[in-house]
C-alpha cells in the first residue's frame, strides 16, 4: 500500500492526460506529418502520400498572398483582441461599482450574449448590415448620411468587411472576458483599497498600483486566449464571406487554411500553413505564458 500511495496522483491524472493526447495530441502530430507530404485528393482514395520534405513550407513562405493574409490577420487580431480587453476591463470595473440590480442585469446580458449560438447571432448581424433593409444603413441615412442608402458593408471594400467582422467578434468575446475579470476584481481586498485611499491615492493610482497587480494574471490569461482565438478566427469570416464578401480580398488565416485544404484539396499545404500559424501563436504568446508561470511559482 505504501508503494502504491505515491502513484495515486499520477493514476488520477492518467485518464485526463490520455484524453488530451488522444483528442489533441494525435491531430497535432498528424497535421505536422502531413505538412511534409504531398497529401491531396488522390490520397483520400488510397494513393500513397509522397514525402516532399520542406517543399510545402517553401511554397507557402514564397507566396506573397500568404504574407498578405498573415499581415492582415495580425493587424485584425491586434485590433479585436486589444479593443476586447480594454472594453472588458472597463465593463468589469463598472460592474464592480454598480448597484446590485444593475450588476445582475449586466451579468444576465453577458450570459445571454455569450450563450447565443454563433450562427444565430451572425444571422441577426447580417440583417443589421443588409444593404437594402438593414437597420444600420437606415439609422445612418436618417441622420443625413444619404451615401449609406443601399451601401453594402460586406462587398464595398475589405476594410468595411473587416470592420463588421471585428464588431461581431468583439461583441461576442466581451462577455466571457468581462465576467472573468469581474470575478478577479471581487478577490481584491477592500482593506487594501481603503488603506491606499487613506494614504491619499486617487482612484487611478489605486487602479494602477493596487487593483491591476492583483488581477493582472487573469487579465493576461484572458488576453492570451483572446489572441489565440482572434488569430485563427474562422466562423465569423467564413459566414460573412458567404453573404457577399470577396474571399480573396477578405481572407484571414483561418479561412485561408480552410480554402486551401477543403476547397482546393491541398492538405499538405494547408497543414504547413496551420503549423506556421501555431508557431506564430507560440511566439506571440510565449512572453505572457512565461509571465503566468512565473507568477504561479511566486
From TrEMBL:
The keyword Transmembrane helix applies. This is Sugar ABC transporter permease. It is found in: Cell membrane. SUPFAM superfamilies: MetI-like. GO terms for cellular component: plasma membrane. The chain crosses the membrane at residues 7-29, 73-94, 106-128, 159-185, 210-229, 267-289. Its main location: membrane. It comes from Arachnia propionica. Keywords: Cell membrane, Membrane, Transmembrane, Transmembrane helix, Transport. PANTHER family: BLL4140 PROTEIN, DIACETYLCHITOBIOSE UPTAKE SYSTEM PERMEASE PROTEIN DASB. Residues 70-288 form the ABC transmembrane type-1 domain. It comes from the Bacteria. The keyword Transcription does not apply. It is a multi-pass membrane protein. GO terms for biological process: transmembrane transport. Belongs to the binding-protein-dependent transport system permease family.
